[in-house]
Design brief:
This protein is of the alpha/beta class. It has one domain: Nucleotidyltransferase, domain 5 (2-Layer Sandwich), CATH 3.30.420. The chain has helices spanning 35-49, 69-86, 98-107, and strands at 2-7, 12-19, 22-30, 57-63, 90-93. It has a five-stranded mixed sheet with strand order 3-2-1-4-5, sandwiched between helices. The radius of gyration is 15 Å and the shape is globular.
């Protein structure tokens, strides 16, 4: 079972590729304001470096937060769309052991179908002036 992992809650984003619990590849990069431009490139490059493509991926584990609104929004929108388009199960987890927990959930056959971010606090929306 080839699993893609993704974390985009902070300026340093990370992706990983696992064969069950065995790590095939992992990369952390300073994505910050270039996350939307670099995320797809990084995923594609990692799959290619492991001689894999989307037909080989059988699950996605993603970190759901808390964290940066924009980073989580971009990361989760991307993997939700990829999971839906490719018919791949997806699970979202958080905390220090998010990867291990997510891999275990996928192994149990869990599929959240759509992962929702947790930002850690309520939105700070200002009152309109008019």
């Amino acid at each position: 079972m080839i699993i893609l992992t993704l974390r985009t809650d902070k300026p340093e984003s990370e992706i990983g590729l696992y064969d069950n619990e065995a790590k095939l590849a992992h990369e952390t990069w300073e994505a910050h304001r270039q996350l939307a431009e670099t995320l797809h490139i990084k995923i594609k490059a990692m799959l290619e470096s492991c001689q894999k493509d989307w037909q080989d991926v059988s699950g996605i584990v993603v970190f759901v937060g808390p964290g940066s609104f924009t980073g989580l929004r971009i990361g989760l929108s991307t993997v939700n769309a990829l999971a839906y388009a490719n018919g791949i199960p997806i699970v979202g987890t958080s905390g220090d052991g998010w990867t291990v927990e997510g891999l275990a959930l996928l192994k149990e056959g869990k599929n959240q179908k759509q992962v929702i971010p947790t930002y850690g606090s309520e939105a700070h929306i200002t009152t309109p002036k008019k």
